[in-house]
Amino acid sequence: MTNSIQDLEKADVILLTGSNTTENHPIISLHIINAVTRLRKKLIVVDPRVIKMTQYADIYLRPRPGTDIAWLNGLAHIIIKEGLWDKDYVRERTENFETFAQTVEKYTPELVQMVTGIPAGDLRKAARLYAQAERAAVVYCMGITQHRSGTDNVKAIANLAMLCGNVGIEGGGVNPLRGQNNVQGACDVGALPDVLPGYQSVADAAVRRKFEEAWDARLPGGPGLTATEMIKQAGEGKIRGLYIMGENPMISDPDLNHVRSALEKLELLVVQDIFLTQTARLADVVLPAASYAEKEGTFTNTERRVQRVRRALSPPGQSRADWRIICDLSAKMGYEMSYQSAEEIMEEIASLTPIYGGICYDRLEEAGIQWPCSTLDHPGTPVLHCNGFTRGKGLFHALEVIPASEMPDDDYPFLLSTGRVLYHYNSGTMSRRAEGLNKMYPEVMVEMNPIDAFALNIDDHSPVRISSRRGDITVRVALTEMCQRGTVFLPFHFREAAANLLTNPGVNPVSKTPEYKICAVRIRPVHGM
To answer: 157, 177, 197 — which closes off a domain?
Structure first.
């Protein structure tokens, strides 16, 4: 997030898209709801599903799935055409505006209505509400990123925010909601294929030299592979061994039959986890790890806030903290890692990572700190880009609509989107072991529009078989008008009817993020169950 969670209550207008916030980020949803109901702020919701947040929206736009660039360009078109953009901000702090403006020129409200299904009049109302706000924030999540066009979707959001001068101010910004509790922290310290800790490029010789001197080791100058690329290369026999930590690709990755085939081809699969997951059951070696409550360390949350994690329990059995397992394994492979504590590792992170330079355990004792925090007397940074962008001037991108890698046709006429529900978490490894949560949401249900169900002679809660070009599952139906006609929604937490047996392997060409939100499927009633 460029801004803070609390900052959402300072916005005059919040544009929320691609996020079922009450179910996936319930704490953040409370801040948005409070901003609307108590502080009288305005809310625009853009989502193909009629999620709960639409109840609080001043304007609700319901696009067809996969048409985000069209409606975002359409908002920009209206704002420029009506002279509502922040001309001083654009002139002083951005570049490439002319090319961007030429591109969005053709995205008239009428054209956008044809592409997205959003009424032209509603699009104009949303554009005016966002542009005329003194402070407007955009909040988005994986409904925006998990598309073939995901990277461009995010760039289109950045275009809109810069166009109205909403980056680098309180109550504004471009605010992605992270899907897991420490995904931000993992990225911060180098769990990406092309950067070292602190988003320092592996291609930069000076950066590599700094880390080589600290670690007394040679580092490669080129990028590594993303998770989806690793699975692909394992299936092709190019990767012979994988070490998987805290991840369950046999539930969470797309096209699970391909994932299983790829993992079974490996000569060595090592899984380090707190439970024997579906992936761990395929492993040659399982290393038992400690849970969050059984170790020391830090988490960095969605607003870049670094917070202490303190051990409350002793790890059971032979399980140990991840860093201790890694250090011992490294030593056996010939490279000594002589850390004595998680705090010592944090001190090294600060010494090599400028954005974490002023963060230490003593400072985190009472409260978290938002990076960048460069020195021990730096207070942290609640709002990014106040005095300029990292690259200098903000770059407008000229973007066009990119079709999904797979769309419905005569053989597979429905569009399937996958996601989460309030009562379960990711692959269900933890949440589905909780009796109370299982009582609240005991089985997977596919959400379907009642008109589609009537046409197929499908009753509420009756079983159906969902098939794609990659696999099929049998589940019960929950009839709801949350879904548009021709679309269905399926949670991915349930191993007994794994949604990712169906999903397509298409990925975003830049980030390699799978296209979980669009998949063509066929639905048939199942009789006799």
So the answer is: 177
